[in-house]
Amino acid sequence: MFNTLDRYIIRQFLGTFFLILVLIMSIAVVFDISEKTEDFAKTSASVQEIVVDYYVNFVIYYSNLFSGLLIFIAVLLFTSRLAGRTEVIAMLSSGVSYPRFVQPYLLTATILTVLSLYVNIFVLPAANRTRLAFEKAHIWTTYKLEEKNVLREIAPGEIVYFEAVDMPKLTGYRFSLERWENGQLRSKLLSDRAVYDTASGRWAVYDYVIRELPPDPGMAPAGPGPALPALAGDAVMPRERITRGARLDTAIALKPSDLGQRLAIAAALDRQEIADFIEAEKARGGSTVAYYEVEQQQRTSYPFATYVFTLMGVGIASRKVRGGTGVHMVLGVLLCLLYVFAMKMTTVAATNSAFNPTLAVWLPNMLFGIIAVWIYWKAPK
Question: Does one domain contain both 134 and 221?
Fold first, then answer.
């Protein structure tokens, strides 16, 4: 099935990649330990929890995240070494065409792409869930919601507003809850503050005012709609009614996590969970929809970048040049930096403006794919 040339290139490719991966991850773990030594000293977590729950999953996450760039470096290193020893020239001179020479590279890239896709879809969400749970319990400080004037549609026609939210205290300030029916405002609850009770799952509002409004007589009678939690019924009233009180417990379909949570949590959601979350965030009018859509698309775009990096790497390094591996590595690092910069620019545009998240994630792959094809076409034949 494979001849000697194929086995030789595949062995060199995989061997160099996994060697670099082990070295980079070892360095990353050492730096992370040095950074979190004080946190670990204060925590009650055992050594086994630190190693198994945190660092094993830490390695899985970052190995997969940087696999494309490490593959690029691996291809540059061992192909440059082949070119430096004139092995590439010998292969081509013996009758092996350049496309045939590249075949084992693409075959190995396919193996690594499938492996990365499998990890992204089936392994990584569970690994990130365990890692992030450890960080939440032992490392993270309390989450703070920076967003002001938080507006969420919690059900059709029911709109919740907070001027500000104190997440550590589970308290929202300048709270309001509106109920609309057939385009008419039927009731509005206003309160100085609303406090979430984790035991009951309810919001208690303090110093509240409820305004219940009759339907516009010039319009058709309002049909049945979603009931306002803990408020009066839907009878048509001849005039506005105002109710005041010191405290009212409500059964609002809203949790503090629906208002905001750490964006890193997106990495812990599996395919169905992240799709459901995006749909729910769109319905609520959440401001982080684009970030989760970017995370969703990156789970497939990053693995397929392996082909781009592989083709680009072999096209650059297969040419024997003065300076050898050093020249190839400089050019390779420059292209890596440009790729990371392009990916950062497009994802920031997606999360902070109306740029399409799918296009934002795949655009760098398309642009550098064109560069990779051009480099391959210009490579020595």
Answer: no
Quickly count: other Cβ atoms within 10 Å of residue 291's Cβ.
19
Instruction: Give yes or no for a contact between 208 and 189, defined as CB atoms under 8 angstroms apart.
Output: yes
Kindly compute the dihedral angle of the four CA atoms of residues 254, 256, 262, 263, in this order, to the nearest 10 degrees: 10
**Greater pLDDT, 251 or 71:** 71
Alpha helices (H) along the chain: 4-42, 47-48, 57-65, 67-84, 87-93, 98-118, 124-138, 256-259, 271-284, 289-317, 325-352, 357-378
Cα gap 135→377, rounded to integer Å? 47
pLDDT tens sequence across 290-313? 889 999 999 999 999 999 999 999
Q: How many domains does the chain have?
A: 2
Band the pLDDT of 352: cuts 50, 70, 90: confident
Confirm whether 183 is domain-assigned.
yes
Strand ranges across the sheet with 241-250: 150-155, 158-166, 171-181, 184-197, 202-212, 241-250
From first CA to last CA, the distance across the chain in angstroms is 25
Q: For residues 375 and 311, is the Cβ–Cβ distance under 8 A?
A: yes
12-24 pLDDT, tens digit each: 999 999 999 999 9
Q: Is the pTM of this model over 0.90?
A: no
Angstrom distance (rounded) from CA 66 to CA 74: 12
Domain range enclosing 166: 150-255
The pLDDT of residue 232 is above 80: no
Longest dimension (CA), the chain: 96
> Looking at 239, 255, 271, which one is the last position of a domain?
255
Residues 109 and 203 in one domain: no
Q: Which amino acid is at 319?
A: R
Reported confidence tier of residue 216, pLDDT bands at 50, 70, 90? low
User: Is residue 279, in this structure, part of any structural domain at all?
Assistant: no
